[in-house]
Amino acid sequence: MHRPARRHLVGATALVAATAAAVAVTTTAGASDTGLQAQRAIQGGTAKNVILLIGDGMGDSEITLARDYVAGANGRLNMDRFPLTGAYTTYAVHADGTPDYVTDSAASGSGWATGRKTVNGRISKTPDTDRALPTILELAQRNGFATGSVTTAELTDATPAVLAAHATDRSCQGPGDMAKCPRDTLANGGPGSIAEQSVNHRVDVLFGGGKQRFDQKVTAGRYQGLTVTEQAGKLGYQVVTDAAGLRTVKAGKPVLGLFAPGNVPTEWTGKPAAVGGTAPQRCVTTNPKRPAGTPSLADSAAKAIELLEAKQRHAKKGFFLQIEGASIDKQDHAADPCGQIGETAAFDRAVKVARDYAAKHPDTLVVTTADHGHTSQIVPLEATPPGLSSTLVTNEGQQLKVNYSTNTPGQSQEHTGTQVRIAAQGPQAYRVLGVTNQTDLFTTLRKAMGLR
Q1: What are phi and psi of 93, to 5 degrees?
Q2: Domain regions of the chain by residue span
Q3: Fewer Cβ close by (within 10 Å): the C or N end of the chain?
Q4: How far apart are CA 108 and CA 379, in angstroms?
């Protein structure tokens, strides 16, 4: 079992030694910050803390688009500065175990959350028998770690759901949304909706949108007649709805932050892509539909780390935290390049928060990746794509054309089945090198935390 891992480690050591001089000098196009960081990243060992950052739908094209617009073609984002980078495959499976080449966020998230492939739409359950699978968050809790989940989607959306819920279908978000999950209902002896399960798990930090799901009333069981938010209060949660409330919470008690009725509004706006293209445009870095007092993803990430660290200050074990930039995907679906780029930039600032923390706490594993690829493509200015396109004027003052053609104009743009980037630093980070499977991330996280 351990022989392949040793060969992988030896190979990684040789790779870093051979490139140490190049790595040690930070340049605009540098692969990482320091040679020392790269050397630390090829070590094994155990991590006290793990921070997993998921850019939903953030394939290489989405990263490149944001980099070109924000940092420049020869610039680098924070997510570009990890010392070790690989790629992983993202396919889902059919019920019989055969590959489904294009995954959704439920199946892909279940892959790293449980180490098992499943069918599209399912939340941390087997593809055939619909049986609940233990998740990395559940294992972390059992082994004494504090846990947290931060997202810009609804907290009941697929990517956060895979950590603290088991559902036949991702649509079963609140007590009133259980049509596709009859066996999961409380009335039938199941665990309830994703919202109910998330608070029942007593995850220490839950920050995101989705207040409308938590405001639904529980239909059976101990908390029947209460809203899920009221249920959370009964379970000891501090409930907050904006940045001001977030500043007042105290460590030691779980926190439920519900910052929007649905998904948290995007930070940037602009004209969506159109058939025949758009006139050259600059993105607007403010969004009038985003209420004042809505915390940024970076602010939520920083507060989550602060609360989790404070809880574990005198404990031998640290924390596990997942941070999701959800609307990179959602704006890609909508063929909205400005919304998409702004959410990638917001996610990248959360990456910086995590890496800054790890710089002071080198026993922290930080991993950044995506759940699947998406549709946006940078194409020549003279191209006339058959789908939707938009021309942007970047921060370098140059024009850039982005195309969306994975579905008929007017329909939601689609995921793609491409492999995606995974990058890491800290204990066990070498495991992301090469081309791995999405389910291998579960093993990386589990080994880093020493979980049984």
Answers
A1: -135, 160
A2: 46-449
A3: N
A4: 28
* Beta-carbon count within 10 A of 209 CB: 25
Residues with Cβ within 8 Å of 398's Cβ and at least 6 positions away in sequence, in order, are: none
CA 15 to chain centre: 29
Q: Which two tokens stand for residue 9?
A: 């480690």
Tokens of 206: 């839950």
Domain with residues 46-449, CATH architecture = 3-Layer(aba) Sandwich (3.40)
Distance CA 257, CA 241 (A): 6
d(CA 452, CA 429): 19
- Separation of alpha carbons 366 and 419, rounded Å: 20
**Could you tell me the sign of the dihedral formed by the alpha carbons of 400, 404, 405, 409, in that order?**
negative
Which residue is associated with the tokens 């889902």? 92
> Can you tell me the distance from the alpha carbon of 378 to that of 400, in angstroms, rounded to the nearest whole number?
7
Residue 332 CB-density burial (10 A; 0-12 exposed, 13-18 middle, 19+ buried): buried
Q: Are strands 84-89 and 420-425 parallel, antiparallel or unpaired?
A: antiparallel
User: Counting runs of H as helices and runs of E as strands, what totals does the chain give?
Assistant: 15, 16
Torsion of CA 190, 191, 194, 197, to 10 degrees: 170
Look up residue 377 and give its two tokens: 């493509």
DSSP per-residue codes, 143-187: TT-EEEEEEEEETTSHHHHHHH--BSSTT--STT--TT-GGGSGG
Could you tell me where the beta strands, DSSP code E, fall in 268-386? Answer: 274-275, 319-325, 364-370, 377-379
Mapped onto helix, strand or coil, the DSSP state of residue 294 is coil
User: pLDDT, tens digit, for every residue of 12-26?
Assistant: 433 333 333 222 223
Q: Closest Cα to residue 164, out of 232, 217, 227?
A: 232
Q: How far apart are CA 251 and CA 426, in angstroms?
A: 26
pLDDT tens digits for 147-186?
Answer: 999 999 999 999 999 999 999 999 999 999 999 999 999 9
Q: Which residues are catalytic?
A: 105
Please report the DSSP string for 176-227 in residue order: T--TT-GGGSGGGTS---HHHHHHHTT-SEEEEE-HHHHTSBP-SSTTTTSB
Length of the chain: 452
CA angle 313, 367, 214 (to 5 degrees): 70
pLDDT in tens, 88-124: 999 999 999 999 999 999 999 999 999 999 999 999 9
What letter would DSSP give residue 67? I
Where do the DSSP E strands lie in 238-345?
Answer: 238-240, 255-258, 274-275, 319-325
